[in-house]
Amino acid sequence: MTLQIARNPEESSLPFLVRIPIGDGIVLRVKDTWPRTSKIYCHPHGLPWPEEPEIVEELSLRSCVKRGAAIDIEVDRTRESRSQFVFARARGREVIFWQSRRTSKTARPDVKLPTARASGLAELEILVDTRERYAWKFAAEQATTVKRALPVGDYGVEVDGELVAAVERKSLEDLVGSLLQGKLFEQQAALAELPHAVVLVEDRYSSVFKLTHVRPSVVADMLGEAQVRHPTVPVIFAETRPLAEQWAFRFFGAVLRERAMSEELDRRIGAGEL
Predict the structure, then answer these.
(1) Furthest-apart CA atoms within the chain: distance in Å
(2) What range(s) does the ERCC4 domain occupy (predicted)?
């Protein structure tokens, strides 16, 4: 399995072609051969891979995996080995960027981050479990809530009638009680059946070490154990109730946006449009 990079035979501001070994091969026009100092803008080539390409580099890959709306690659070398192709939308049009961990941290964002709507979604419906007491209202966010008995979690979102993400809300007191009773592990096991799930705590992690009715080290050890047992269901401390509510709002928006982009990418790969 290789990542092939060739010269673009057409005159273009994107002088190279890259062939990603996904499906029948995704061919993109790119500005450079590797994202070393900044993100690289890419564009679908719209034509088959050249019959006699002028190969610039042929990189042996350890892995090439589609994850949501991104394709992660790992090159079989010690330096500059990991990068990803990210498919997104900005100002109503598709954009594709090739980035490494270094360039994603240092480059100025090319897509404007949402400030009001979650991930730019015009509508966001959040399900609230009927057993949830003193529920978040999401009154400050652009979202609607619907009361429903959820099979797992306190809040969730659906896609085509399927629960795809859930948040289990905890106060610090509730978290400690759930840990000591072993209930949290059971809740995490159930949450792990979903594609996306978190346990969200309305307090700071530092508050664990201020507990007086139980040894803080015991709680800290059990939190570590919870994460080891269920690595796909993180326990996140969001400091305050309003921040936890905001975090859940952004989380659900990101889930729905990512799923929509992933389905669109699957469609385009299946239709041979890339």
Answers:
(1) 73
(2) 125-205
Residue 141 and residue 182 in one domain: yes
**Among candidate residues 108, 132, 154, the one where a domain is terminated:** 108
Q: How many CB atoms lie within 10 A of CB 229?
A: 13
Amino acid at residue number 156: G
pTM: 0.70
- The strand pairing partners of 96, in sequence order, are 42, 87
Instruction: Give the distance from CA 198 to its chain's centroid.
Output: 13
269 part of a folded domain: no
> Confidence class of residue 62 from pLDDT cuts 50, 70 and 90?
very high
Pairing of strands 196-201, 162-170: parallel
- The predicted structure's pLDDT at residue 38: 86
Tens-digit pLDDT profile for residues 95-141: 899 998 776 655 444 443 344 555 566 678 999 999 998 899 988 78
Among residues 108, 143, 173, the one where a domain terminates is 108
Greater model confidence, 93 or 200:
200
| Contacts for 194 with CB less than 8 Å, ≥ 6 apart | 152, 153, 163, 164, 165, 166
